[in-house]
Structure formats: C-alpha cells, structure tokens
Structure prediction request, 579 residues.
Amino acid sequence: MAQLEEINVGEFRHLVSERALTGETMLLNMGPQHPGTHGLLRLLLELDGETIVNCIPDIGYLHTGIEKNMEAKTYVKAEVMSDRLDYMNTMGNNLAYVLAVEKLVDLDVPPRAQALRVILTELQRIASHLVFLGSFGLDIAAMSVFLYCFREREAVLDIAEMCSGQRMMTTYFRPGGLWRDVPVEFETAVRDFLKMFPKRVDEYQGLLTKNPILLDRTVGIGKLDASTALQHGVTGPPLRASGVNWDLRKARPYSGYEQYDFNVPTRAEGDTFARYIVRIEEFRESMKIIEQALNKLPMGPVNSGNRKFVPPPRSEIGVSMEALIHHFKLWTEGFPAPKGSIYSAVESPRGELGVYLEGDGGPKPHRVHWRTPSFDTLSALEKMARGHLVADLVAIIASIDIVLGDIDR
Amino acid sequence: MDKKLENIVQALQEKFSVSVEEFRGEAHVFVKAEQIIEALTLLRDKYDFELLSALTASDYFPQETPRFHVIYQLSSLARNVTVQLRVPVNGDQPKVPTATRVYEVANWRERELLDMFGIQFEGHPDPRRILMPEGTEGHPLRKDFPLGYEEPQFTFNLDEIDLRKPYAKE
Prediction:
C-alpha cells in the first residue's frame, strides 16, 4: 500500500514505461475511492491519451489482519472472521473453513448437513452472481438491472436470515455440521425462489445479452487467454470463460457434490462478454443443484455425534454429567487439533477458495492462510487492461468480480 | 497417498533426494531452497502442474529451527492431483529464490510473504510491501509480532487514553 501523496514516479520507476519518465505518457490515479473499483482499490494508470499503457494495482486499504487474528482464537471462534473475507459469499467462506477444520481433525458430517450446506452455498453463489450482474450493469450504464438484481438477492438473504438469524454474516456452518437445523419454512421459501428465479434470469438476459451497447462495450474487451490465466492463478468463472473446464465441484467433489448432476459452463473467448455469459449460465446450473439437493434432502441429525468436537444439545446437559463436561470444555477451551497441516479448497463464486490450516496440538490454529481467488485474479488485471480505454477498464474490473475484502484479508 | 501422486513424489525423491511427509492423504515434500526453482520447473513442465494454487509460509518461532517454512501448493488440472512443496528457511536473513519466472502469480504472493514474514525473494522484479502501509515496522504474521489491541475508554480515563492514542496525524 503506497502513500497517497503526489505520485512519485521514482517508486514505480521499474513498473512504468520509459515514456512516463519523460512526460510523454500521463500517470493517473484511479481510486482508492472510486465507484468503478468496487471497494478500496487504487489503480495507478499510465495513459497514452485515453489508452492504458500500464495499470498498476495498489491494494491493502482494507487489510484487517484476519489471518493473524484467527491464530489468536479457538477453531470455532475463528470462524466468524471467515464471513468478513468475501462478504458476498459468506456461506461459501464458512464452508471452506469448516471443511478445512473437519479435514484437520478428521470429523464426520451427517448427510443432511452436507445437503443443506450445498443448498445454502449454491443460493449464496446465486446472490453473489446477482451482485456481480447488478454492478456490472451499473458500470456499463444499465442502471435498471442493478435494481432488479438486488430485489432477487433480497430473497436469498431472507433465506439466510431465516436459517442463521443474519442476512450476511451468517457463521451458520460449524465444524461437524450446522449451527441448528433449518426452520420448517425453509423448503417452501427455497421452492418459491426456484419457481420465481428462472423467469428473472430470462429477464436479465432479455435486458442485457443482445443489448447493442453492452455488446459494444464487452465483446473483445479485456481478453485473457488460458495460459496467461493459469500463470496468474486465475480460477473460477474468469478461467472458465477462457476455455478451461476446471471446477473444483467436479474435479474434487466435497460436501456431496458428486451426487448432483450439473454442467460446467465454459466459453472460449476469454473476454468480458464471455465472463458475463459464464456467470449467467451458472445461475441455471446452481438452480439445478439446489433442486436436486432439495428433492432428496435426507432426514436425520445435522450435527456429528462426536462429542469431542460438537457440543451436546441443551436437552442432554440436564441429564448427563458427561454432556455437561463436554459443553463446558468445548465452550471454554475448545477442541484440540493434531499437529499437522492441510490444504482444502472449495469453488467459490470467484474461484478456488483455499484454506491452509495448521494445527499445533492445541485448541487454536497455528497458522491459517486464505488462498483467496480475487487476489490472484486481480494480479492478471494488467494483462487484461493493457491497450484498452479507461472506460473499458471499469467494465473489465466489473467482469472479474473482485471483492476487496477477499483480496486484502 | 494418491496412486498418481506416488510416481511424481518418487521422481522428486530420485532427482532431489527430498524427504516426504504424509498427513491426511496429502503429500508434503521438503525441498532445499537452492533446488526449489528446479523442482517447480520440473513439476510444471513434465507433470503438468499448471497452477500454483497457494504460496504461503508458516513461522515456527521459537520452537523450531529453521524458523520458516515457505509452502508451495501446486495443482495439476490435467491429472487432478495436488502436491505441496515446503522449503525450510533460516530465521536470520531468510532468503529464497523467486518463483516469478515459473509462475507469474508468485509475484504478488511473494510480495505478501515479504510484507508479512520478511522473507526475501532473490531476483524478485518488484520487491515492495503489498498490504501494509510503507514504513510499517516489523512483519505482522511473525509469531513474535504482538497482536495488538485498543484500550477501552471509559468516562474516568477517556482523556488520559486520548493523549497516547495513535490518531492519524497530518
């Protein structure tokens, strides 16, 4: 994070072209406060007229030290920090974290909890893509789409609130299962959403996909070829829009994704329009998954019966001394995890969301590292933006769908 | 360990005489710092590890020496396997050759490690801090860096704490 004083070419001397030093090209600050950068992101642009010669992202304005903070909390308490990373995909972050903890301590999860996790993360994926679509529309001056998208997102957040009591910072998934079972209205609410939403996706497509202004501003803009994308660690929809069929839900299924039948939409072009289309297709695939999971939602407990990791239900505490001890130990000290490290990754709406988790035998993690997809995707921005206009840069940033909380951690 | 992975780990063992640990089905391969670039290049070119999924580090101060492990998590899309390389690095003047020429994503990830752990990457094209402001002292993710907190202010000590509070100054 560089200081926000007058731009000092000296510090960036090795990043800008020769022409910037003679004053032939202009250096321009975009951000940190700028509506087109989707958060606190500063871009240092080297411009030849209105064409971008170099684009140097400067991040860190939203750095909150989440990795350091998690080291000071027990495994369960540290989970609340995961919501704050990528605040558009809170359930997905919870899932990445609890799967990592479960892998580290070798904990089982009952099938009902697994299926509910899938339903809720897919709903969250839809909500996240809706925010993408809304802000993408806004950035290319299609204001009305933004309003429609946020209307539908509200339905998803209502379901999240129904389950967890919170619209966004849910912390609903816990190591070994869920906080509690979903309420009885859950199924109707999800089915209502599934009934309403396909028509809405058609509406968005009707508004945008063949819109000549959108096509002018997105087709052929911000091209990213597959090998550059992989070199830069780009994953998720931007990678699939570059023609690489790679989805962790298919490649390394977790939480029971292997039971569901869905496609992985890909496009070959790798431009801004392809990234938009891939996400639109993902709406439909997510709905397919939710419907299948809901149709065969198993009954049964939503928490593991392993009392060394999962607190006993309230009803047991009054009658069992052992349950009382477990309750006390788990809520004061927490559970210990063995010495060792694991890496587990899930497919978030933005790509591979990985957690490197290391235990040292105690109740607090020795090291947590979040491999956040936006961080790597943003590092490829320079390759996408070079040679385009400043106005196109806004569309490119919108199309890679970065979340600054995810980048700066 | 995965069958597909066994061959790869074996090849690494023959070429670099590395030691391997296994935990929960994951292979952790310990590589020396001077061999890491060669190992990464071999994995990328011969075994299709196109994606450097994560590049991070862990600090074992004060229990263990060498103090740091730099961790390279690699994924192969074609073979659908992952492998983890770990490079132990000494505490005083930690240095590792840069992987930027093998994987471009290493550029930012190594800057993050420089920022958070103070690990130097030799030959890095852009060795600046990435997340913390310029002029920050110390490296936050080291174990000897205090977590820090804000003193709670009450009516009786509000002014007293105000005096030593680090407000943004002009």
User: Anything to note?
Assistant: The domain at 107-303+375-408 of chain A is CATH 1.10.645.10 (Cytochrome-c3 Hydrogenase; chain B). The two ends of chain A are 13 Å apart (CA to CA). The CA atoms of residues 114 and 255 of chain A lie 5 Å apart.
